[in-house]
Known about the structure:
Helix 17 packs across helix 22. About 30% of the residues lie in helices and about 15% in strands. It has 23 helices and 25 strands. Helix 21 links the parallel strand 14 and strand 15. It is of the alpha/beta class. The strands form 7 sheets. The protein has a 6-stranded mixed sheet, sandwiched between helices. The protein has a 4-stranded parallel sheet with strand order 1-2-3-4, with no helix packed on it. Strands 16, 17, 18 and 21 form a 4-stranded antiparallel sheet that branches.
Amino acid sequence: MVLIPTLFYNTSCKQDYKNPNASVEKRTADLISRMTLEEKVAQLRSFSMSNPKLTDEVLNNSIQMDSMFGMGIGMMNPDFDATAEQTVARRNALQNYLKTKTRLGIPTLFIDEAHHGLLAPGADIFPTSIALASSWDTALIKRVYNYIAAEASAKGTHWVLAPVVDVCRDPRWGRTGETYGEDPFLCGMIGSAVVKGYQGSDDGTVMPEHVAATLKHFTGHGQSESGINQAPANYSERTMREMHMEPFRLCIQHANPAGVMAAYCELDGVPAHANPWLLKDVLRKEWQYKGIVVSDWWAIDQLWKKHAIEPDEKSSALRAFNAGVTIDLPLGNNFKQLTELVEENKISMKAIDEAVSYMLGIKFRMGLFEQKDFDINKSKELKATGEGRRLAREAAEKSIVLLKNDNNLLPLNINSIRKIAVIGPCAAVNYLGDYSGIPSQNISLLQGIKNKVAGKGIDVLYHKGVDLTINGDSISMNNYQYINTAEFPDPESSRLNIAQAKRVAQQAEVIVVAVGENEQISREAGTHRMGDMATLELVSLQDELVKAMIETGKPVIVYLSHARPYAINYIAENAHAIIDGWFNGEEAGNAFANVLFGDVNPSGKLTISVPRSVGQLPVYYNYKPSSKTYDYVTITNKPLYPFGYGLSYTTFQYDNPVLNNRTVSVNITNTGLVKGEEIVQLYIHDVVSSVTRPVKELKAFKKIELNPGQTTNVAFNITDNMLNFWNKDMQYVVEPGEFEIMVGPDSENLKKTSLTVR
């Protein structure tokens, strides 16, 4: 039990800020009028539950608590080592201290990571973002994040540092799996669904049992120089606006997230955390954004320690605050300097008050001043329903992409197989991806297949084949500490293991070989760990493992477990079937087994192009007309698999699109033998324009379900928003002229009509 120390607090006769019936604006203005400068600055700083660790002993030490939190605190970062019970108890104790034992009783916002599930022991873990995006199912995605919000809020979370809406145009980047792919419109639409799921509304209101969302990283983070995390993103304003800023604009327009996180990278020589054009002129003035701009972790320190645009911590704090950063994460070390900067007349009190008003406004709107203690039983009740596992399996099934299926090998007939070999380093371990919690159950491919064939008289044979890395199998699940390096196996020993795996596989009638990467290979790179790749070839002789399986003469199904696309040229040419499963969450194995044996018809489609070689990069679909004029000497300039691509166990026939005024429609027929879902994609190209435009741009999509022989008509309204672009004078307009309207199953197989705008 945690005891709360005693400290006096202000009791004036009329305190409008304590009146829950008063408007947020009135409460905010009243509270700011009562605050000292030190109390205001405290609201612009953050702290951590683990630095120092807020144990019961610390929470009971009135002197230590007054020293750390006597002025209040804006946000509190999590303690990843704590159990759920400890987290809830300690958050309750700290919040009670802040609300009852500080002078003004201002509560804090508790932060967590929840990229594809709450980053906590026992939380349900869903497919990583690049996988979920492959479902193209915004309704499903909204349901997933509604559940994640419920699980987070039940443990006392108010604010999550997600989603990542960066447009990824270089898959060497270790954070590719955290993104929704390479298209700005798709990233914006999926990001909007995620924000609505987190916050529980369409208008930005953070509903009860939901959490505030943070868009990140604003902006250019997903196409850094050489694919290196935090490297410069020195692109033109036009490229920034059309590609990297667009998902943020769309999310703010459609979902109004509570927060935006500035990016580590620099734009035109100015780091985002020191860029008033980005954070004030565009975000605040042009887009009228009213939420909080949070710093990325230690990013303000980087202004002097890494970017060298300021000489020290104090000047960096001044630069970041004046650029528009509201709060300093993770420990508020820089913004503690704001008090002196105001006293030195380098920052006005008006500017401080404006920043504080953003912080207090969200706290009032979320009801933190009236919020009761968190109840750990809510978390236990939610887990007891099993909803998370069911939703995780559904999401995994919808996220799987069928890349190849020669001679309709799939689905397998469970009644005609006696032995199946499951081979590969990603077969018996289900990798979850970066920023993952620890689920209570984590179903591998091997376990999923065993679950599926139990009682069917089928032998399941297994061999690992090769190790991905030899210094641990993944992110260490002990205290969330990374294995900072990736050490690879000796080729000679790997080839001996491949020979053994081949002997096992030869006993089976069909072979599933699971290859890819683990979290040591694909993750956020940092000071002491690597995560970006210079190659897109599979590591640790995995191609040789697949070749050995092909040499058996048995049907070979390749399963890909990964977060970034790989140049799988040999596999694409020689495997009989290929299933892209990404890092597919805690139910990956069961979902794969359902697809493998035909209980689920795969419907996912790629949201990022798959290159043939790292030398092709960038290889995104929405390139400029002069970009792909010539092939390379040795290979084509086309991707191995294009954006939007994905097969089904049935087939779909598209008629030619018909344009009626500004509505384009197309008849689509299921010409196969089983029911299936299809993602219908609409692209637009401005034929002649004042500046060069991409050869095609995704502007709409719809997911439909058809029975065998069924035909449906899919219609899209062509709005001005689909035709707008930044013209030669950097005005956002629709230019008159001809537009190609293209509809199809992916970005390459399209049927066209044309629209003339006069």
